[in-house]
Write a structure and sequence with these properties.
YitT family protein; membrane
Length: about 220
């Protein structure tokens, strides 16, 4: 394989590809589709836990979850699940409908963040912390690509973002930025960890998801 072939293999994808396991509606379940969904959400949760354990700054929503743990005494997994449920309530006035993937997102990501924070050791050095953050961002990208391509419904945060976009006409990127800034600020004020990991996540997560969507598209292309 030539270097140009390697570059082409990791080229970011511009859209969500149609995969062999993609559902026609949000409750069309099959063993293989559910297995891919669950695997993707597990990888996503473990990736997020690496950012937590790297201790150099979390993703914005995890900053919020971590801040909530400091204020309530909840574990980070439970805090993540409770926040997801409250975000899901925002769907009601937005006329958004959850799918199997939406509900699975709430349970599995929270569970695997909790598992990951017990499996992975907390880092004390910046270099190791940044390495944890980078691996975590890659895993969140992979997990996102897998669960999104199942077509079983967006996670609570993504559904709220698209719902607000459709209701208000505000560009989806601006809606996402606004939501993330609000939760990041609230989480930081409650004591959540903000740092270089947060900046790396903001800069790299979009590309990470796009790269893995491209890999999935190329591996499943007929």
């Amino acid at each position: 394989m030539h270097f140009s072939d390697v570059i082409a293999f990791f080229k970011p994808h511009k859209t969500v590809p149609i995969t062999p396991w993609r559902a026609d509606h949000r409750w069309q379940l099959s063993l293989s589709r559910v297995a891919i969904l669950f695997f993707g959400l597990a990888i996503f949760g473990l990736g997020d836990s690496l950012l937590v354990q790297g201790d150099v700054g979390n993703a914005p929503w995890t900053v919020f979850s971590q801040g909530l743990t400091y204020r309530t005494g909840l574990s980070i997994g439970w805090a993540t699940a409770i926040i997801s449920i409250f975000v899901l309530l925002i769907w009601i006035p937005l006329n958004e409908k959850p799918g199997f993937g939406t509900l699975s997102n709430i349970v599995l990501i929270a569970a695997f963040i909790e598992i990951g924070t017990h499996i992975f050791p907390k880092q004390t050095g910046t270099l190791a912390g940044v390495a944890f953050a980078l691996v975590g961002i890659a895993m969140v990208g992979l997990g996102s690509a897998l669960y999104i391509t199942c077509g079983l419904g967006p996670g609570p945060r993504d559904g709220a973002m698209t719902g607000i976009h459709f209701k208000t006409g505000i560009r989806v990127g601006r809606v996402r930025m606004g939501i993330e800034l609000v939760v990041l600020t609230i989480g930081w004020l409650m004591g959540g960890r903000v740092g270089i990991g947060t900046a790396l996540f903001a800069l790299l997560i979009g590309q990470s998801v796009a790269i893995f969507l491209g890999i999935v598209a190329r591996l499943t292309r007929k």
